[in-house]
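As a warm-up, study this chain.
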Amino acid sequence: MIRAYPGCASVLPGEELVLHVATDSRRFRVHFYLWRDGFQAMHTSSWLPGERAPERGAGDDWRWPAYAFSIPADWPSAVCIAHLEEAAGAEPLSLALDQAAALFVVRGRRGADADATADARTDARPRGMLYKLPLSTWHAYNHSGGGCYYDNPPRSLDPSGARVSLRRPGGGIGGPVWGAPDHYDAASPRQTFAHWDARFIRWLARQGYAPDFCTDLDIHHDPGLPLRYRLLVSVGHDEYWTAATRDAVEDFIAGGGNAAFFAANLCWWRVHLAERGSALVCHQGSARGAFDHWWPHTGAGRPEERLSGASYRHGGGWWDGARQTSGFIVQQPGHWVFEGTGLCKGEALGADTWPPLAGYECDGALLDAFDRTNGEATLSAWHDEGGTPDSYQLLAACPLDRRWQELPPRERHAAGEGVHAATMGVFERGGTVFSAGTTDWAQVLADGRDRRVERITRNVLDRLLRD
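Now compare it with the structure written out below.
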């Protein structure tokens, strides 16, 4: 067996990548690939001496032997996979590998240019797309070392909560993952790169988009990074955010930057970097409450609606088995988001797709009512109290009925009470923010059988890259 993890999950072209590797083999080598419209082979290392090393706990730095690799200066920004081969041969290359692989990001040169930050604060109008990968969320579910936030969580005293290490196998690929398999795609575990992001990135490549890439923790360490771009994109399941990452993204939007969230359960938990940046801590519950929930006053007191206009607590989750939904019922067919789709008011989008467009987890704006006879959704008079901007436009809504496995509690409602719905919306607060309200947008998009989902995606990206 051979496993590995990066010392730091992102590098610039021309920098050094350090992989920490443990193997039973006397030698190994590494094949490097970019992920675009599939794997693109870039480089194979020489054979290197292998060393055994012990597995440690989920909250520990595993301190495996380090091997340095120079990333050529001419590599483009991309998500990269290091595929490790032992002397006896290699596991077949796959995005679903739970060993013999490690993920890292090569950031763009635009993101390295300090002068670009100053330009972004002027009328220079930065261009281009920055695609943010949810590294913190992947590690929250990474089960290497026998634990994660959801099973056997290691404890931290300062800061208090559960601690998971960033320096262990996994984090997108190459490690075991906690959670139920997806009824619609058992081959790629949720909470990995393969399940949502790889699909969306492949679609981007086929459509001719060429984003730069970063992780959420790159923004934590460099809050000016988004300012060098016109559009920030997040896809799938982007659940865990540090305060510094959220501050930077909200400042980017307030300053005129645009954001597109083809995602849900967005910014649900706050995490803290610990152990000199090698671990993440989250306080998810005790007798005194969940201090790191973003929305309640007993937690962070910063409802996630201020970021995206929607929240998981107004939506819900269906984790196991086949989902049954009515689809997203169109509310404003004349909006630019729906241009060229042919959708009419009251028509359903994504009810019969594979999977249903209303995903395994969904975010919603606060609704007072949903009339099932005509499909009319009514935005609550209280929506602004949670932070949903006054400029929020409700574009489509999918009601979530009592069959959904979680309909969370929230202000004025116990669990299951009130109207729960996935909502698609857009608002302006300096820049423009689009929220799809579902984790599974990327799967429906990649399936390709509903051209309306593809057209909406192009409309959003093209408009927000241009404006």
